[in-house]
């Protein structure tokens, strides 16, 4: 099975990826819940380390941009967590730093993406 994050979240398959990160299907092993976890991984600033889990952040300006972006990523997760149970915003359950990056734990929501909905 996949990597265990924060002592409780088991990483599953990739749900999507973009320029700033990867979203995974995950399982909370403590509560036995299906979740989604977004990992902060901006491709212009970092890459996966040889251990397959941690990140290797590029040096110089890219490293500075990574640090700034990571702080913003976690602040956004903190802000979204305050909108608990808002009908238009996915519920953020937790956020944390690990393996040299940040993670945002959210409810896993089934349905179409905004892109697919626009094309329908």
Describe the structure in your own words:
ATP binds at residue 38. InterPro entries: Kinase-like_dom_sf (IPR011009), Prot_kinase_dom (IPR000719), Protein_kinase_ATP_BS (IPR017441). This is Protein kinase domain-containing protein. Keywords: ATP-binding, Nucleotide-binding. The protein has 120 residues and is of the alpha+beta class. The chain has one domain (4-119): Phosphorylase Kinase, domain 1, CATH 3.30.200. Helix content is 22%, strand content 39%. It has helices at 61-81, 114-119; strands at 4-5, 9-17, 21-28, 33-40, 46-48, 55-57, 92-98, 101-107.
Note the beta-strand portion.
35-45%
Q: In sequence order, what are the helices and strands, one letter per element? A: EEEEEEHEEH
- Structural class of the helices, strands and pairings? alpha+beta
Rg for CA atoms: 15 Å
Main sheet overview: 6 strands, antiparallel
Mean pLDDT: 93
How many helices does DSSP assign? 2
The total domain count is 1
Helix content: 10-25%
Please name the fourth-level CATH homologous superfamily: Phosphorylase Kinase, domain 1
What is the secondary structure topology, with strand pairs?
Blueprint (H helix, E strand, L loop, with lengths): L3 E2 L3 E9 L3 E8 L4 E8 L5 E3 L6 E3 L3 H21 L10 E7 L2 E7 L6 H6 L1
Antiparallel strand pairs: 1-2, 2-3, 3-4, 4-8, 5-6, 7-8
Task: Name its key features.
Phosphorylase Kinase, domain 1; 6-stranded antiparallel beta sheet; Kinase-like_dom_sf; nucleotide-binding; 120 residues; alpha+beta
